[in-house]
Amino acid sequence: MPRIPGVDARAAGPTLRALYWFAKRRFGAVPEPFTVLAHHRKLMLASAKHELGVQRASNELPAGVRELAVFRVAQQVGCSWCVDFGTMLQRLDGLDIDRLKHIDEYATSDSYTAQERLAIAYADAMTANPMTVTDAQVDELRVTFGEKGVVELTYQVALENQRARMNHALGITDQGFTSGDACRVPQA
């Protein structure tokens, strides 16, 4: 149960009910962070527009590289909701979710490509507190993905840090978008 309960569809106005309908149609259920954010209508609308815009704009990196970096942030921050939802998105994109069980061994696992390893290591460095990103790391990413790709990766990792930290702070936990506990983040 989140620290601030979500706005129930029965208590929602027509605009919010329409947004809930769209989200349920798209994801099978209304994402709980969306229902909590609904307490602040302007932020919720801004967030929805932003998320759709970012989704449309993020096409420089291979989807698997981007999604693994975002997943890693969720795992490192400890946001079980983001891990749950991110796993579902990867499955729907046709990506191999079984290897997520071994993401802690990404640096040595044959399950990950060199590009994926670079992106995951960058996600780790950006998520660390304090950040541990180096010039050499960014140079290697630039050679691999180009400047546009590095900017996209950086933006996606930073955005997931924001999402995961907000959800974690508000006590929003996994919602059941994936079955089983294979990718669950243990709760503290």
Description:
- With 188 residues, the chain is mostly helical.
- It folds into two domains: 9-57; 63-169, AhpD-like.
- It is built from seven helices and no strands.
- The protein has helices at residues 14-27, 32-37, 41-57, 63-77, 80-92, 114-127, 135-169.
- The protein starts with 13 loop residues before the first helix and ends in a 19-residue tail after the last helix.
- Mean pLDDT is 93; it is low at 180-188.
Specify Rg, calculated over alpha carbons.
17 Å
CATH H-level name of the largest domain... which superfamily?
Answer: AhpD-like
The parts where pLDDT drops under 50 for at least 5 residues are: 180-188
| Largest sheet features | none
Percentage of residues assigned to helices = 55-70%
* Domain unit count: 2
Question: What percentage of the residues does DSSP assign to strands (E)?
Answer: under 5%
The number of helices is 7
Give the number of DSSP strands: 0
Report the CATH topology name of the largest domain.
AhpD-like
CATH architecture of the largest domain: Up-down Bundle
What structural category do the secondary elements indicate? mainly alpha
- Report the order of strands and helices: HHHHHHH
How does the overall form come out from the CA principal axes? globular
Per CATH, the class of the largest domain reads: Mainly Alpha
Report mean pLDDT, rounded to a whole number: 93
What descriptive keywords fit this protein?
single chain; AhpD-like; mainly alpha; 188 residues
